[in-house]
Amino acid sequence: MNTLHSTSRRDFLRTTLAGAALLPTRGATGLIAAEEKGTLRAESRVVIARDALLRGAGSAPGSSVDSRRMLALLDRAVQALFDRDRPLEAWRKLVRPGERVGLKVNTLGGRGISTNPQLVEAICERLQEAGIGAADIVVWDRSSDELERAGFHVAMGGNRVQCFGTDQVDYEQELATYGSVGSRVSKILTQRSNVLINVPVLKDHDGAGVTISLKNMYGVIHNPNKYHPNGCDPYIADLNMLPEIRTRMRLTICDATTAMYEGGPAYKPEHSWQANALIVSEDPVALDSTGWQIIERKRAEHGLKTLEADGRAPRYIATAADAQHLVGTNDPARIKTIEI
Amino acid sequence: MYRELNGQGAMSLGFPGERSRSFCSFDRRSFLKCALASGAALGMGEVAEPAAAAAAWTGQQSPDDARFVAEARFYEKLENRKIKCKLCPRECKVGDRERGYCGVRENRGGTYYTLVHSRVCAAHVDPIEKKPLFHYLPGTVAFSLATAGCNVNCKFCQNWDISQSRPEQIPADYAPPQRVVELAKQYDCPTIAYTYSEPVVFSEFLMDTADAGHAAGIRSIVVSNGYIQEEPLKAAYGKMDAVKIDLKAFTESYYQKVVNGELKPVLDSLVRLKKMGKWTEIVYLTVPTLNDGEAEIRGLAQWVKANLGADVPLHFTQFHPEYLLKNLPITPVETLERAKAIADAEGLHYVYIGNVPGHPAQNTYCPQCKRLLVERVGFTASKMLIRNSCCPFCRHPIPGVWHA
Ligand code: SF4
Q: What is the 3-state secondary structure (H, E, C) of chain B?
């Protein structure tokens, strides 16, 4: 099994190499082709999978999650999403052997509120079982430093899961444009992956309202600072329309093991809670609509104003769903929420 | 991953407009070649990029190099370790570990920092006419420099690769104020020009360099969008000896849609500069169909005359398709001539046409006797007849700073 969390570099190398050796490469025979993205689905499924014992019984706040329980939680979530009895069947619906998969994590918030390495490790394990070569998986964000600060080990080269920031390879020289957006896109996305699995976190954002799936794409481009005015609207929606992103996006696995209802995007322990959950969907708009409501409920519990009343409702979610974008749906009637 | 700015690289002159060209061309593709070449040119053990390190360059530099980080001068601390930037009218509220819109200022634990002090990503010796400043020390050259970043995002930007990048995304040189002054002297530049990207966002570096320059007898000029608050304008541009403002249009809608900024604060800056007694020239990049309407040009000319006076030089310059505005043609020369005719008719005395080599409207004529006073070929003043700031033929005073 691949480990990406900080044990030691030597352990990491040993386990990644061992993992690669143990997982045979699968041929294409009998595989179910992954569905191509087309027009909007009739219904978008959003799975919220919880495990109150993710950190062990009676664990202290801030304690790390149990890797085995995390893998089991991921399996339950993905199986429920694809309606499959076994995890491998679900993952084979998603990826084909030979594909190159990028896992875009979110590490801006340091160890407090970043994508959990144990979750990424679990995803990597299942991807390899589904026939993706270890070296064909890249875990990435803007910079290697940020990845390390969040507990990942940077790994480049060799037959192991790759893990590094765009700062190691730069952005494309050419601009990618859509609507209000003109940006250089990370070469990790364009040159190292043909499948994108978005692995964001669930948190409040002082400008955008919330940052979950759609906004995590700010970490893909060279100039995110240009897209914060007006609550990031329509920038986030336009950004998610870039072909470089849209044609690769297959799945979002939101890490809500720790979430934040106020004070984001930097980590504020006083405004965080251990939700011990994963939220999974093929539709990032439906997922963000669902995540927004989770944050609103938590704000209400703490006596805080709604984001609307606070002047920062995440309007970009509706823009991403509108007729010019159709990135997904925010219509509650078309979102099927499955809580397990 | 930085070189000291060594001043040994090749210079190139005569590019249209204020497009940035660095000593060693610092664009990403040629950076490696350049780094190696400059290493060879140094040869004296000066701090240059070792070949191995240059070869390992991957496209980004550390944002954390302490040499480039200095506390910002214009901001307010807010609760929860947030800050409000008071440098430009955008007034970004920036949370901990976040950056403002310009991408070169970062909140670290509730203190706001500039990341571009002494972080020069483009440096070049340019004729002052290239800025363009036509009434300020004609025929001289300016040691011209930029850092990364900009507080707007013009869809036609010629220098978007530096202005719309974060500092760590482009190669830069460590060039503290004293080093800039030495280089300006070395290249016989009577002025240092802050230009190419947007000097508002590197105000601290600009102020320190202007002070160092003045102490050594070198003047400072700035090429700016004028999108800056009053206090920093007075503090930073108060140290400038001449100012060129890019007035991008005369409508708020253009500023909103094409510039991502606002018109009103820029007009306010122009009026303040006038009150401060700064020699100021205005450039109006004339973009076909977007800001070239007759009513708009007339309104602009009337506003300039009423608020700044008839003697402020106004340059109508030719647009070239760039960056995010590639679907429009080059501005027809007739459009520029029409704009000039309108401004002339409104009573402005010094209306120029720019970016059109050889056009007679790039020369200066006496508004009284109409005789040719300064003839310009390319970016050089080939003939300069003004004496004691007057027309030598009719003695009419010609405003500007004509001699050092
Ligand atoms: S200078 Fe930069 S950080 Fe400050 S208000 Fe302007 S854009 Fe924002």
A: CCEECCCCCCCCCCCCCCCCCCCCCCCHHHHHHHHHHHHHHHCCCCCCCCHHHHHCCCCCCCCCCHHHCEECCCEEECCCCCEEECCCCCCCEECCCCECCCCCEEEECCEEEECCCCEECEEEEEEHHHCCCCCECCCCEEEEEECCCCCCCCCCCCCHHHHCCCHHHCCCEECCHHHHHHHHHHCCCCEEEECCCCHHHHHHHHHHHHHHHHHCCCEEEEEECCCCCHHHHHHHHHHCCEEEEECCCCCHHHHHHHHCCCCHHHHHHHHHHHHHCCEEEEEEEECCCCCCCHHHHHHHHHHHHHHCCCCCCEEEEECCCECCECCCCCCCHHHHHHHHHHHHHCCCCCEEEECCCCCHHHCEECCCCCCEEEEEECCEEEEECCECCECCCCCCECCCECCC
pLDDT for res B51 = 29
pTM: 0.85
- Mutate which of B115, B153, B259 to disrupt the A interface (most A C-beta within 10 Å)? B153
Q: Please tell me the predicted confidence (pLDDT) of residue B19.
A: 57
Q: Confidence class of residue A41 from pLDDT cuts 50, 70 and 90?
A: confident
Residues of A in contact with B103 (CB under 8 A): 223, 225-226
Q: How confident is the model at residue B404 (pLDDT cuts 50, 70, 90)?
A: confident
Kindly report, residue by residue over B387-403, the tens digit of the pLDDT. Answer: 999 999 999 999 999 98
User: From the CB of B99, is ligand 1 less than 6 Å away?
Assistant: no
B58-67 confidence digits (pLDDT tens): 455 666 688 9
For residue A169, list chain B residues with Cβ-Cβ distance below 8 A. Answer: 58-59
User: From the alpha carbon of B151, which atom of ligand 1 is closest?
Assistant: 7
Question: Poorest-confidence range of A255-259, B50-54, B240-244?
Answer: B50-54
The residue of B32, B57, B163, B164 whose CB has the most chain A CBs within 10 angstroms, and thus the best one to mutate to test that interface, is B164
The topology under which CATH files domain A6-23+47-53+66-339 is Rossmann fold (3.40.50)
Ligand 1 within 6 A of B119 CB? no
Question: With an 8 Å Cβ cutoff, is A108 touching chain B?
Answer: yes
pLDDT digits (tens, 9 = 90+) for A72-124: 999 999 999 999 999 999 999 999 999 999 999 999 999 999 999 999 999 99
Closest to A182 (Cβ–Cβ): which among B59, B96, B324?
B324
Closest approach atom of ligand 1 to CA B90? 5
CA B75 – ligand 1 centroid, Å: 9
Question: Which residues from A are below 8 Å from B82, CB to CB?
Answer: 206
